Amino acid sequence: MLYIVGLGLGNEKDITLRGLETVKRCDKVYMEAYTSLLSFGLSPDGLSALEDLYGRSVIVADREMVEEKADCILFEASRSDVAFLVVGDPFGATTHTDLVVRANKLGVKVKIVHNASVMNAVGVCGLQLYRYGETVSIPFFTETWRPDSFYEKIRSNRENGLHTLCLLDIRVKEPSIESLARGRKCYEPPKYMTVQTAIEQLLEVEQMRSQNAYGEETKCVGIARLGSEDQMIVVGSMKELLDVNFGAPLHCLVIVGNTHELEEEMLKFYSIKSTVVGFVKDNKGLRLEMDA
User: Fold this and answer.
1) Which of 7, 92, 181, 251 is deepest in the core (most CB within 10 A)?
2) How confident is the model at residue 116 (pLDDT cuts 50, 70, 90)?
3) Residue 44 — very low, low, confident or very high, per pLDDT cuts 50/70/90?
4) Of 220, 260, 226, 224, which is closest to residue 240 (Cα–Cα)?
């Protein structure tokens, strides 16, 4: 059996009880490590924290392993129980849907253990989940590659009064263009898009397309480390959010559509108009304290 297990968003303890029981009885455990990452995964002891809790060795599955060697994982799952761990929920990325399709074609049985993901946890900002339109991904621009296919989706959402969740690019174990040209892979350092970079790119596309999908004064919600003890949520215009330091990854951005009065009440809690006192450490961990 192949078990695809969602880990949630915060730390190693966010796995469900069912998920933990599943992992503990599996013969081999893989962790997908490129579509997202747990907040503690940025620290050196991140993986050991998983292994200590699970009582199992965890094999990190990077993009190459998942996309090029998936059949090896599926072959193992045809002969024994294999757990494939995914940050958030198993179906938060199309890669994992593809894995299920390939497993079914090979006759490998699959069971899913769901968990929280950015797609539902984003509700913490106060915008109601059923009022969101199509989610978009914002990739890093390069000198020669500046894709803007997300623009039409945002414009359509805005025309229909819907909010837009923007998932921001992460690049982990990505080969450099120069090394590929030389026929030898050398990997770039990990890179995580910030709210500021996303807004700068969005405004660049708006300036180029000039269809008034959004602008500097458009209200947005910047979110960092969603689901963690030190998660940060700030509401303001695109222009205002450019000056906010959201700190460590992962970041995401919500472009606000039409709002209900209850949504507006919730958004006030995170308004940039409040004075940020700073991060305060107490017996509950690290939190953002603000003066109303």
Assistant:
1) 7
2) very high
3) low
4) 220
| Four-CA torsion 230, 194, 99, 59, nearest 10 degrees | -60
Handedness of CA 192, 198, 199, 201 (dihedral sign): positive
Q: 73 with 129: CB under 8 angstroms?
A: no
Closest by CA position to 262, among listed 123, 156, 116, 157: 123
- pTM comes to 0.86
- Looking at per-residue pLDDT, the higher value among 47 and 109 belongs to 109
Select the more confidently predicted residue: 141 or 279.
141
Q: Which of 45, 47, 80 is nearest to 62 (CA)?
A: 47
pLDDT in tens, 131-167: 999 999 999 998 889 999 999 999 999 999 999 999 9
How many Cα atoms occupy the beta-carbon half-sphere of 83 within 13 Å? 26
Rg (CA), the chain: 20
Which residue type sits at 249?
Answer: P
Single-letter amino acid, residue 87: V
Residue 257 CA neighbour count, 13 Å, CB half:
22
CA angle 195, 287, 35 (to 5 degrees): 40
The whole-angstrom separation of Cα 120 and Cα 112 is: 18
CA distance 168 to 141: 12
Contacts of 285 (CB under 8 A, 6+ apart): 229, 230
User: First and final CA of the chain: distance in angstroms?
Assistant: 52
Can the peptide bond before residue 250 be classed as cis, meaning omega within 30 degrees of 0? yes
The enclosing H or E element of 276 equals strand 275-282
